[in-house]
Specification:
Helices cover about 80% and strands about 0% of the residues. The protein has helices at about 5-15, 15-25, 30-65, 70-90, 100-120, 125-145, 145-155, 155-175, 180-205, 205-230, 230-235. The longest helix has about 35 residues, at about 30-65. It is globular.
Length: about 240
């Protein structure tokens, strides 16, 4: 008898056949299998966040022709957090497939920073920023010691948390979220929550896990602001 499409999909992408039998045939809550499925699902959402969150934000800015409401310091801190792993990977000689998705996201974030300056009427500064940033990344990847970049990378999560604080403060001050992408914030929120689960499973109640919890809480604040200020943002865009 041929396997159902649902079973084939779940066994191929989410769980071993044994876990499928335990959970969906025997209806037995097998804890190791449940954790395995949750970890796989969390990984899926983290990948979606990595590949799509910044892309959706970039597309919304281009579609609307405006970057109103987006905090430039927040985006620059995001860029710092994304740049450190790329610089470390290049300096360490890691193969491209091991860090290519981070390069993709980093380039999108740099483009968002440029567009914020461009739509503020400061295209020259935006262009100068892109050139300076590209040169700095080249120097870090080519000549900086991995130990130096490793120290920089240790502050990347703190930078990401601070970036969310700055964006949340900007939303609260403006009483609208401007061109902040709803889908982008949702993916970031889901990805942050999944990172908490993965970190807790791998390291337990560590400082890293607590940092991810704080980051997830701030992502939830941003999600709440997007929903609460939705009508105000629509009026501003009109």
């Amino acid at each position: 008898m041929a396997a159902s499409p649902v079973k084939e999909f779940m066994v191929t992408y989410l769980m071993p056949a044994k876990c499928y039998e335990e959970l969906f045939v025997n209806f037995h809550l097998h804890v190791p299998c449940a954790k395995f499925v949750l970890k796989k699902t969390a990984g899926f959402w983290i990948v979606l966040d990595t590949f799509l969150a910044q892309l959706l934000q970039l597309l919304k800015i281009l579609w609307r022709g405006s970057a109103e409401g987006l905090s430039l310091p927040s985006v620059l801190l995001q860029l710092y957090a994304l740049s450190c792993p790329v610089a470390y990977a290049v300096a360490s000689g890691f193969p491209l497939f091991a860090w290519g998705e981070r390069l993709f996201t980093m380039a999108q974030t740099a483009a968002i920073a440029f567009l914020i300056l461009h739509y503020r009427g400061d295209t020259f500064t935006g262009t100068l920023f892109l050139l300076s940033y590209s040169g700095l990344m080249f120097l870090l990847g080519s000549y900086a010691a991995t130990a130096v970049i490793s120290v920089m990378q240790s502050f990347s999560l703190a930078a990401l948390i601070t970036s969310k604080v700055l964006q949340a403060r900007s939303n609260y001050t403006n009483r609208h979220t401007g061109q902040l992408s709803t889908l982008s914030v949702f993916l970031s929120c889901a990805g942050s929550l999944c990172l908490v689960f993965v970190s807790q499973q791998e390291t337990g109640a560590s400082l890293d896990t607590l940092s991810h919890i704080l980051s997830a809480c701030l992502s939830c604040v941003l999600q709440a602001q997007v929903l609460c200020y939705k009508s105000s943002s629509k009026k501003k865009s009109e």
